[in-house]
Design a protein that fits this description.
The protein has 335 residues and is α+β, with helices and mostly antiparallel strands. The protein has two domains: 240 residues, BirA Bifunctional Protein, domain 2 (2-Layer Sandwich), CATH 3.30.930; 79 residues, 2-Layer Sandwich (Enolase-like, domain 1), CATH 3.30.390.50. Helix content is 31%, strand content 26%. The strands form four sheets. The protein has a six-stranded mixed beta sheet, with helices on both faces. Strands 12-14-15-16 form a four-stranded antiparallel beta sheet, with helices on one face. It has a three-stranded mixed beta sheet with strand order 4-3-5, with no helix packed on it. Helix 9 packs antiparallel against helix 10. The radius of gyration is 23 Å and the shape is elongated.
C-alpha cells in the first residue's frame, strides 16, 4: 500500500479551488511524495477533459438553477457534485502498471466500504458498485512522471437532482466528444451497518487510507502554495475558455416548418463559437444574418443579443427571431 501525505484543502467546497488544488498537487508538489486529497464541492457539474458540455447536461436546467459547470484535466464521464458527495484524489509517481489500473488505487477504498457493511465491488468500467448500482466513478491523468487517479463517492447525495442535472435535452448534436455512460446509482448511506454522517465517513476513510491519524502524515499548504493555486483557478478553472469553449467541435442539424415553408439549419461550433452557419428556406435569403451570427459565442444570451440586433436593423421579424433562437440554441422537440 502506498504511503500518502494528506493535503488539507481547508474544507473549501469551491469546485474551482478543489480542481486547481488537484492539478497543483500533481504538477508542483514534491515528486518525492505521494499525496491524498479528500474534498466535497458545492452543487456543480464536472465534465471530463474531452467532453462536450451540451451532450452531457440539461443545459436549460443548470442555467435556471445557477449550477456551474467545470472541466477537469482527466478524461472520463460527467459527474454531479454536491456536499453529499465525497471526492478522493490519489497523486503518485507515474508507472505504466498503474495507468488504467484503477483497481490498484481503488481496492483499499473498496475494502474500507466493505468493512462498513457496503457490498462494494468494481466493475469492468472502473466504477465501484453496491448491489449492482454505481456509488463511485473514476478517472485518471498523467503528466511528466506524475499521475492522478481520482473518483467520486456518492454518500447521501440528492439522486433526483442528479438525474435532473444530467438529463440531456439537446440531443441532436454530432461530435467526436467522449460520451458518458449513464448508470443506475445509489448512496453509500443506504448500505451502512451503522448510520453515520458524511463527516464521520470522511474521517474513517482518511484514517484508514493513511493507516494512521491524519495529523501524522499531513502536508499543510503554505502561502506560496495558496497563491499559486489561486492563480491556477483564475487562469483555467474560472474561465469560459476552459470550461465551455474547450468542448470538441460539434454540429447541429435542425428543421422546422415556419409560415408554410420548411426552414433547414446547419451550424458548426468550434472553440465555443459559431464557425459555420447555413440557414435555408425557399423564399428568404439569410446571408446577412449568417454573417452577423458567425463568430458569436454559442451561448443563449450571446445568440439572443445577436438576433435582437439583427431584428432592429431589419434583417428579420420578431416571430422569425424567436423561431431561430429555439433552432439555434434550444432543446430538441420530443416525439
Amino acid at each position: 500500500m502506498i504511503s500518502y501525505l494528506y493535503v488539507n484543502n481547508g474544507e473549501t467546497i469551491d469546485p474551482a479551488a478543489n480542481l486547481a488544488l488537484e492539478e497543483y498537487a500533481l504538477r508542483q508538489l514534491s515528486p518525492e511524495n505521494d499525496y491524498l486529497i479528500l474534498y466535497r464541492n458545492a452543487p456543480s457539474v464536472i465534465v471530463g477533459r474531452n467532453q462536450n458540455v451540451l451532450e452531457e447536461v440539461n443545459d436549460a436546467y443548470v442555467r435556471k438553477k445557477g449550477i456551474p459547470v467545470f472541466r477537469r484535466i482527466s478524461g472520463g464521464g460527467t459527474v454531479y457534485h454536491e456536499p453529499g458527495n465525497l471526492n478522493f484524489s490519489f497523486i503518485t509517481r507515474y508507472e505504466p502498471s498503474r495507468l488504467h489500473n484503477y483497481r490498484f488505487f481503488n481496492e483499499p477504498v473498496v475494502q474500507i466500504l466493505r468493512s462498513l457493511g457496503v457490498p462494494a465491488e468494481m466493475n469492468d468500467r472502473n466504477d465501484i458498485l453496491a448491489d449492482g448500482r454505481k456509488i463511485s466513478g473514476n478517472a485518471q491523468f498523467s503528466s511528466k512522471g506524475r499521475m492522478i487517479s481520482h473518483g467520486t463517492l456518492l454518500f447521501d447525495a440528492d439522486l433526483e437532482e442528479l438525474d435532473r442535472v444530467l438529463e440531456v435535452r439537446m440531443k441532436n448534436i454530432s461530435s467526436r466528444s467522449q460520451k458518458s455512460v449513464r448508470s443506475h446509482v445509489a448512496n453509500i448511506s443506504e448500505f451502512l451497518e451503522r448510520p453515520m454522517n458524511i463527516r464521520k465517513f470522511h474521517n474513517i476513510l482518511l484514517k484508514e487510507l493513511l493507516q494512521c491519524e491524519p495529523e501524522q502524515k499531513c502536508y499543510e499548504l503554505g502561502e506560496a502554495d495558496r497563491l499559486a493555486i489561486q492563480k491556477l483557478q483564475n487562469r483555467r478553472y474560472r474561465t469560459w475558455e476552459w470550461n465551455v469553449a474547450r468542448s470538441p467541435r460539434f454540429q447541429i442539424h435542425r428543421s422546422k416548418r415556419l409560415q408554410n415553408e420548411e426552414m433547414n439549419l446547419h451550424l458548426e461550433v468550434e472553440k465555443g463559437r459559431i464557425r459555420h452557419l447555413d440557414i435555408q428556406t425557399k423564399t428568404a435569403d439569410y446571408t446577412s444574418l449568417v454573417e452577423a451570427l458567425t463568430g458569436v459565442r454559442y451561448d443563449p444570451d450571446a445568440i439572443a443579443g445577436a438576433l435582437n440586433e439583427a431584428r432592429t436593423t431589419g434583417l428579420l421579424d420578431y416571430a422569425t427571431q424567436q423561431n431561430l433562437l429555439s433552432m439555434l440554441y434550444g432543446e430538441d422537440e420530443k416525439g
